[in-house]
């Protein structure tokens, strides 16, 4: 009885999650006339035209390439700087460590709207405007603190004796860190990378402010569909569907890590 | 764990400091600078002191936006936290279906904010959207572009759709870490379902739940893109939350001074609430460690 109740709750909840997505997918396979003139639950005249538009027009598909480039850069940068810092926070006390940790977290709390304009000016003045690295660095603002926070939780779970044994065995710090320590917290790194990917992929305000042509993310490109001839709903829906795909792929690959990793660490 | 006192650990933290300083301190200082200056263009600034702050503290526009923001965050937390816990309790514990649930539930989290907005914009429209179409068919006069209440409901349902999974996933992780022995002991004692929840599951979830509440509070307080895409802050000003108002002021009207003063106070409010959460959280951690 109890099991059935749970299944029902989950089914309802998943339906609630999936119906709006279904509607988007449904629309992406319709022609614009079908979308605006009739109301159908399934595409009557099934068409791939909307996807063809996106995949053949460089100004569309380059949006995806740009997004993927800066998200990857951001994940790499965030993890590279966050790993040693998280190790320091989990193993040592040092002057001002607690204040520093909270200060880092405050950056995760800063509304991006506050930073949009200063970022624009800062990156313009150092000549980074409209480059992938600019967006990647800007996203470090909230991803680095988050990565440090998550990794610190995982590292605290690794007993300190392991470090000491490694030093007695003659490992140097960098070698110990890469050869022994990182494999131990692999699922933590996976979870941190997942969260960095997620928050960088979905962020729009900063990435739109910092780019104009060369590094324009797909999410910003989507605003283009409002043209003189009215909304191009079909292409808009297709573009939306394509932005979901990379996320879905990432989830599929890390699904075991999420289940395991969530339980181990603090996030 | 006992930590060693070692001030050289600063070197390990240094890269983080450099990168965050570049992307946080410099822009923040620029904002502080704007907030005490006025300009007539041509990059000529002159000091006006706290004038902008005074103007903003007394501005009714800010008060209204703040009121809406607090109401919004309160409603969001009141719906998403209990619902998230409830979903987490009902998720399958392991096996194939657990993976399926995990993947499907994470899906809304990985959709770019403006696409979330687009999905609900389309979904709610009376002419082409599934929801709007059926609501008007059964005779409910629903139109989120004209009616403030409908706009609010749409934005709230959208946020619940978007973020409840995060709360649920975090709680689920907390539940997974409860050893089976606890449940067996409860069964021996013939504990009711409610007391199992109250005395076993809730305390074990407390840590992750606080993280979830903290994240949800911060993010709902900063919400910008989704309502902007769906309602554009309208109808009228009814869904103009703080961030939307701020961007309107800073980038739309280029009122840098007031916008900067506004930003700083906005930031301080978030900081204050988060600090309270954080303190509670670390105290909980310490108690657990004992």
UniProtKB/TrEMBL annotation, chain A:
Coiled-coil stretches noted in the UniProt entry, renumbered to this chain: none
Gene3D superfamilies from the UniProt entry: MetI-like
Record localization: Cell membrane
Principal subcellular localization: membrane
Biological process annotations from GO: transmembrane transport
GO cellular component assignments: plasma membrane
InterPro entries according to UniProt: BP-dep_ABC_trans_perm, MetI-like, MetI-like_sf
Keywords, comma-separated and alphabetical: Cell membrane, Membrane, Transmembrane, Transmembrane helix, Transport
Family the UniProt entry places it in: Belongs to the binding-protein-dependent transport system permease family.
Protein name, entry field: Sugar ABC transporter permease
Organism: Fuscovulum blasticum DSM 2131
Species classification: Bacteria, Pseudomonadati, Pseudomonadota, Alphaproteobacteria, Rhodobacterales
UniProtKB/TrEMBL annotation, chain B:
Localization: Cell membrane
Any one GO biological process: transmembrane transport
InterPro entries referenced in this protein's UniProt entry, alphabetically: MetI-like (IPR000515), MetI-like_sf (IPR035906), Sugar_ABC_transporter (IPR052730)
Membrane topology: Multi-pass membrane protein
Major subcellular site: membrane
GO cellular component entries: plasma membrane
SUPFAM superfamilies, sorted: MetI-like (SSF161098)
Keywords (A to Z) from UniProt: Membrane, Transmembrane, Transmembrane helix, Transport
TM region positions: 12-36, 70-89, 96-123, 151-175, 196-218, 259-280
Record-annotated ABC transmembrane type-1 domain positions: 66-277
Family note: Belongs to the binding-protein-dependent transport system permease family.
Protein name as catalogued: ABC transporter permease
Source organism per UniProt: Fuscovulum blasticum DSM 2131
């Amino acid at each position: 009885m109890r099991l059935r109740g749970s299944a029902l709750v989950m089914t309802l909840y998943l339906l609630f999650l999936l119906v709006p997505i279904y509607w988007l997918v449904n629309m992406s396979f319709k022609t614009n006339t079908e979308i605006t003139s009739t109301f159908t639950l399934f595409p009557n005249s099934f068409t791939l035209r909307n996807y063809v538009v996106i995949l053949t027009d460089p100004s569309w598909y380059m949006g995806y390439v740009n997004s993927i480039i800066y998200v990857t850069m951001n994940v790499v940068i965030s993890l590279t700087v966050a790993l040693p810092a998280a190790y320091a926070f989990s193993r040592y006390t040092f002057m001002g460590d607690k204040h520093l940790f909270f200060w880092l977290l405050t950056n995760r709390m800063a509304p991006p709207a506050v930073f949009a304009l200063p970022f624009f000016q800062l990156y313009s003045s150092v000549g980074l405007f409209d480059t992938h690295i600019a967006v990647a660095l800007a996203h470090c603002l909230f991803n680095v603190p988050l990565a440090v926070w998550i990794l610190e939780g995982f590292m605290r779970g690794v007993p300190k004796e392991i470090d000491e044994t490694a030093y007695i065995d003659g490992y140097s710090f960098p070698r110990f860190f890469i050869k022994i320590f990182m494999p131990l917290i692999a699922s933590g790194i996976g979870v941190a990378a997942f969260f960095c990917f997620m928050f960088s992929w979905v962020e729009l305000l900063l990435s739109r402010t910092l780019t104009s042509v060369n590094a324009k993310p797909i999410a910003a490109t989507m605003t283009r569909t409002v043209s003189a001839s009215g909304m191009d709903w079909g292409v808009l829906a297709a573009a939306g569907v394509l932005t979901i795909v990379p996320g879905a792929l990432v989830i599929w690959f890390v699904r075991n890590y999420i289940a395991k990793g969530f339980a181990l660490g603090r996030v | 764990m006992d930590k060693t006192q070692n001030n050289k650990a600063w070197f390990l933290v240094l890269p983080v400091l450099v990168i965050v300083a570049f992307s946080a301190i410099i822009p923040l200082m620029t904002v502080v600078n704007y907030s005490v200056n006025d300009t007539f263009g041509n990059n000529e600034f002159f000091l006006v002191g706290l004038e902008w702050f005074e103007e903003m503290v007394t501005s009714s526009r800010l008060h209204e936006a703040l009121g809406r923001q607090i109401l919004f965050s309160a409603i969001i937390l009141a719906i998403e936290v209990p619902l998230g816990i409830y979903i987490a309790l009902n998720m399958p514990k392991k096996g194939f279906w657990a993976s399926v649930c995990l993947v499907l539930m994470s899906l809304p989290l990985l959709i770019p904010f403006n696409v979330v907005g687009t999905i609900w914009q389309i979904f709610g429209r009376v002419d082409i959207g599934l929801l709007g179409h059926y609501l008007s068919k059964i005779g409910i006069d629903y139109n989120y572009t004209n009616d403030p209440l409908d706009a609010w409901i749409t934005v709230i349902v959208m946020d619940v759709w978007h973020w409840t999974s995060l709360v649920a996933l975090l709680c689920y992780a907390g539940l997974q870490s409860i050893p089976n022995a606890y449940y067996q002991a409860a069964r021996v004692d013939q504990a009711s379902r409610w007391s199992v929840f109250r005395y076993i599951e809730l305390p074990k979830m407390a840590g992750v739940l606080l993280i979830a509440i903290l994240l949800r509070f911060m993010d709902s307080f900063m919400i910008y893109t989704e309502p902007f895409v769906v309602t554009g802050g309208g109808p009228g000003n009814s869904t103009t939350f703080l961030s939307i108002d701020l961007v309107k002021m800073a980038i739309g009207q280029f009122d840098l001074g007031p916008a900067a003063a506004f930003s700083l106070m906005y930031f301080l409010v978030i900081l204050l609430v988060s600090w309270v959460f954080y303190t509670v959280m670390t105290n909980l951690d310490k108690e657990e460690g004992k």
